[in-house]
Amino acid sequence: MLQSKKSQLTGKQKAAIFLVTLGSDVSSEIFKHLREDEIEQLTFEIARLDKIEPEDKDRVLQEFQELMMAQGFITTGGIEYAREVLERALGTQKAIDIVNRLTSSLQVRPFDFIRRTDPSHLLNFIQGEHPQTIALILAYLEPNKGAQILSGLSHQIQADVAKRIATMDRTSPEVLREVERVLERKLSTLASEDYTSAGGIDAIVEVLNNVDRGTEKIIIEALEEEDPELAEEIKKRMFVFEDIVLLDDRSIQKVLREVDSQDLAKALKGVDAEVQEKIFRNMSKRASSLLREDMDFMGPIRLRDVEEAQQKIVNIIRKLEEAGDIIVARAGEEELIV
Asked: Which of 205, 194, 210 shows the shortest CA–CA distance to 149?
């Protein structure tokens, strides 16, 4: 007996068959909600399709229907409820297969239902919660949405929430589920039973890089008083040396006047051509020529020395910005008129 072709199909091939079956109009709407790499992969699989066997098409559609039905039951009453209903409708083994396939292939991150909520509504929804609860939610949101909400919180708790995100490590699934139940009465039971990592320094840096300068300043100043070491670690990651290309020419020229030539030569050894050219363009021909000679003359240098030189320049940029001598563009701020 021949093995079913459907059992040999990959997930991408099934998705390609499903999209072709739906037709171009519906598929194009689905593509609008996918990432660019996902669109490329599916386009490639669709292009590889020669002929879709009716049996494969029917089974892919049936699988999709079963998965959607199972997810509806899970959303309503959880995995056990879904398994119980599916067992009555499809049999025990079939129900187990569907639920296992769904939980392994459609992993839903905690607070998925909250991530689909408008930030302004979400702010009203959570601002009365404990700072730890707010931090937990923001840690699982996209950085731009988390930034909007953090900016809207009262100044009294902004720094507290930021610190809790930065010092957060791992949260057990039980705690996540309990918080979800209290907030929305909906369990995100598709989340992995493994401990889920979220938060940390990088998480709060991403959020702070998306808030306005005023909010960032209030939070950093509060953290400097409460936890200077944490504040310094966050500030180090807020603006990396390569971000210098985001400065306007006048600001770069002000920065260069404060920078030691040897530090600049070391800092430029470890960056791409775009950053180097941005610096060279804001120097006189003689100065840029001397800088190039210094870079060639010093030869290979240790990565640690490059990073130390870059950090010195970043500190200068931060000092000039705090003094109001230069402006570093922030997301969500008004455009500048020169």
From this structure: 210
| 181-239: pLDDT as tens digits | 777 553 333 333 344 555 677 778 777 766 666 677 788 888 888 888 888 888 777 77
By residue count, the chain amounts to 338
Q: Are strands 170-171 and 196-197 parallel, antiparallel or unpaired?
A: antiparallel
Q: Say how many CA atoms lie within 13 Å of 333 toward its Cβ.
A: 17
Tell me if 19 sits within 8 A of 42, measured CB to CB: yes
- The predicted structure's pLDDT at residue 212: 67
What the block records as the tokens of 315 is 């500190």
Statement: residue 160 has pLDDT above 80: yes
On whether the CB atoms of residues 79 and 70 are closer than 8 A, the answer is no
Q: Which residues pair with 171 in a beta bridge?
A: 196
Residue linked to tokens 């670690």 = 233
The DSSP letter of residue 246 is G
Give the global pTM. 0.41
**What rounded mean pLDDT belongs to the chain?**
77
Q: Which two tokens stand for residue 225?
A: 């008083």
How many other CB atoms are there within 10 angstroms of residue 114's CB atom? 20
Q: Rounded to an integer, what distance in angstroms lies between the CA atom of residue 181 and that of residue 204?
A: 25
Q: Which pLDDT does position 93 carry in this prediction?
A: 81
CA within 13 Å, CB half, 309? 19
User: What whole-number distance in Å separates Cα of residue 56 and Cα of residue 59?
Assistant: 5
Whether the CB-CB separation of 106 and 75 falls below 8 Å is answered with no
Give me 320's structure tokens. Answer: 């000039």
Contact 109, 135 (CB under 8 A): no
